[in-house]
Write a structure and sequence with these properties.
The protein has a single domain (4-231), classed as SOS response associated peptidase-like (hypothetical protein yedk fold), CATH 3.90.1680. By secondary structure, the protein is of the alpha+beta class. 16% of the residues lie in helices and 34% in strands. The strands form two sheets. It has a five-stranded antiparallel β-sheet. A five-stranded mixed barrel has the order 3-4-10-9-6.
């Protein structure tokens, strides 16, 4: 799964530089987010199909447009942080957004945990040659019928793990859908049919990825994980290297 991501992007112009001139930097100064949990439902700069030339701040945790009340909206928000690629065309929450509301979520890294001798060890994962890369997602808009407030939300799509990720996320063996620079824009093409979309929802080539262990500060209840130190390499003597 993918419940923790990071973005050390300070300047919106860096997003434009990384994603191409079709993505003008219209946002104000960005705050570095070294470790963010989806369960805190942060707002994130996202590019969506309905406006592919503009970044918008969407809230992590997809709330379907048909949600009848705030209680169920909160439940969906927590349960829909991720959407499985294998069932995305079947689930009621996702089957419309995957066809007409796909989106790109730019990040500089994400986190997963490796289990070894019944203990979990956190890793920070990145791409070797792309400082900023995009995760594939879906979005939706929900209006609270009581307050009238509008919520624009998104979910990150996950796939089966590639061989590299299987060694790290070695229990559930999942990974986020990573769309490399050369194909990221294709994700937003409105004319894509189901077979085309399915073809894009494949694990990234493991040779493009890199990872290192970090300290358990990321899950600390007494220390703030949203600091630069969270991303620093940390060695666990008892943990064997990835083979």
């Amino acid at each position: 799964m993918c419940y923790n991501i990071s973005s050390t992007i300070h300047d919106p112009e860096l997003l434009e530089k990384a994603l191409g001139p079709a993505y003008p930097a219209i946002l104000g100064p960005l705050k570095s987010l070294y470790s963010v949990s989806g369960f805190s439902h942060p707002e994130w700069p996202v590019v969506s199909m309905n406006n592919p030339k503009e970044f918008r701040l969407l809230r992590w945790g997809l709330i379907p447009s048909w949600t009848p009340n705030p209680d169920l909206a909160q439940q969906f928000s927590n349960n829909n942080l991720n959407a499985k690629s294998e069932t995305i065309f079947e689930k009621r929450s996702f089957k419309v957004p995957i066809k007409v509301q796909r989106c790109l979520i730019p990040v500089t890294g994400f986190f997963e945990w490796r289990e070894y001798h019944q203990k979990k060890y956190p890793y920070h994962l990145q791409l070797k040659e792309e400082e900023i890369f995009c995760l594939g997602g879906i979005s939706d808009q929900w209006t609270d019928r009581i307050s009238g407030e509008i919520f624009n939300t998104f979910s990150i799509i996950t796939t089966a793990a590639n061989p590299f990720m299987e060694k790290i996320h070695n229990r559930k063996k999942r990974m986020p859908l990573i769309l490399p620079h050369e194909t990221a824009k294709d994700w937003l093409i409105p004319e894509l049919k189901e077979p085309d979309i399915m073809e894009m929802m494949k694990p990234l080539d493991e040779r493009r990825m890199t990872a290192h262990t970090i300290s358990r500060r990321i899950t600390s209840r007494t220390q703030d994980p949203n600091v630069p130190d969270t991303l620093l390499p940390f060695h666990y003597q008892e943990l064997p290297p990835l083979s």
